[in-house]
Amino acid sequence: MVTKKKAPAKQTPKRLGGTKPTKRKAETANPAATSEIPEPVREFLNKTSIPKGFVNPKPIVLSELRKRVTETNLRPTVSLEQLLASANRIKPADLPAEKLPEDVQESIAALKPELRRFHGVKIPLYWFPFPWLSSACADRFGYMSSASTRAATKLPFNAVTQLLLGELGNMMADSGRDPNPASHNPADAGVSSLPAGFTYFGQFVDHDITFDVSSTLDADTGANTINNMRSPALDLDSVYGRGPGLDPFLYVFPTSGPATAIKLHRGTNTPIGSGGPSNNGDKSGMVQQTNWDVPRMQGTNTAAIGDPRNDENLIIVQFQHAMLRFHNAVVELLVAVEFAGDIFAEAKRIVIHHYQWAVVHDFLERICGVAAVNNAMASVSAPVGSSFRMPVEFAVAAYRFGHSMIRDTYWVNFNFKKATLAQVFEFNRNPRLPVFSNWVVDFNAFFDTGVSVPVHNKARKIDSFMANGLESLPGFSGMMAILATRNLRRGLALGLPSGQGMAKSFGIAPMTAAQLKSGLPAAEVAVLNSSGGLLLKKTPLWYYVLREAAVLAGGNQLGPVGRRIVAETFVRMLKRDASSYLNVPGGFTPILPSSMPGDFTVADLVAFAGVTQP
């Protein structure tokens, strides 16, 4: 059972330009990085609206907040009392929007759909993805391990190895391997204590930081030659795209009120019947949802979102929808407190910082353990703007632990109590789009929101047994339809070090052959023993990470090698990003409504987004 503990206080970052870069192994410090950030962006980053410990000297009272909410026709997603507490943690704007340069003010108004004037417009730079403005180029994959470690420990790229990995991958999702496929009880074998929502939250996060479209499984390829088509920063470019100035189709521009109160478009549902969350703990409490989908192009139903992979299955696209609503709820909070500054920019910053906090203190602390996250915070040196290449040890191996957490069935809502994995894909495909109203996901069954539902979906344990549905991925055939085989072959093609090699490079004792084979069916043991035990001597890193999680960490967390790769990669991304919550001047504490003051979880996120109630 994973016990989530509060981490000790983190470092207090200095103001931009005040941190002396340090050189360390594979990274290269860029002393000029902070000075190269455009001055308007530097100023924005150094003046947060939610400084740690800020208390409004002239607090809004409940009656005034109620009046503002009524006058602006807002629909709060939480109680006004909760909203009030957050409202009084927001510092008044240093630069009111009305004092922005005249050409910027005029340009913002010209972006509205009825005008659509983009020639010559002047847009605030901080509306764009921050990595474009505040970090060295990081658009490639690379390695965490040394060349010597890889050369000495990687599997040979030949037909024999490819055949072995094909045999291993093909059996990892065979029917009957999951001992309790229908159970949601962590006391049962194969069932994790982790809420199943973290499987898809982890997928969402992956789509925020990595995207490889050019590598091949058929040739020995250096990772340094592969482009990363996502910014390696937790900047939610998968939600915001390139911002309202370049991707206006993602946005709703206000027709009245503050011109910068720009929201994200939501989509409509196909009206089939009631679905989603219930207001009384019963099927009768659901309603027919009308706008619980992402926006889609008429005719094709292609999702108009920042990353097309977030339309891959029903659960991930419904979480993408929740993120759209999360931004919109923050915009409404700023409107309610009459924030005088750039509301879009401030809302985006608040959203990203709370999301990053949840990634570290909810997701990573559950997956890696608090100690591993704290160790990474203390040991990783990554000056702002330092060079970075997304390590394939992370992207192609360790972070793919989530594939083993996927279940074959889910309680989606009161209508669909045992939806199969095939249906989770099917009901996010034409002709069942836009998302059917009766298939809207009840996220109370996926995260610990405190709202009662009959079933709280639990993830599968992190191990080498995969959901049977992952042997026949929709839209693919042959090897590409078998997820485990595809993962193993990709690691081979990119020359990943073995699990043993990675362990030794970290100073960690590698797992023994007996540990690697512990609890496995005879057929899988036979594959591991074949070819002179090649896969036991040079175990594929992804498979090794799964085995050590199962054998050394009970399947509820990653083991020593996996947790170190994952925790250090996330911490490095955050530390080098000038706009991350770790680099907020004076430190950062969440201010949005949460079940525990000063903290913010994914459950708090979906609650504030308004997707846990009809």
UniProtKB/TrEMBL annotation:
Matches recorded under InterPro entries: Haem_peroxidase_animal (IPR019791), Haem_peroxidase_sf (IPR010255), Haem_peroxidase_sf_animal (IPR037120)
The keyword Manganese belongs to this UniProt entry's keyword annotation: no
GO biological process: response to oxidative stress
Location relative to the cell: Secreted
One Pfam entry name: An_peroxidase
Record GO terms (molecular function): heme binding; peroxidase activity
Keyword Disulfide bond: no
Region listing for Disordered, in residue ranges: 1-40
GO CC annotation: extracellular region
Key words of the record: Glycoprotein, Secreted
PANTHER family assigned: CHORION PEROXIDASE, OXIDASE/PEROXIDASE
The name this protein goes by in its record: Heme peroxidase
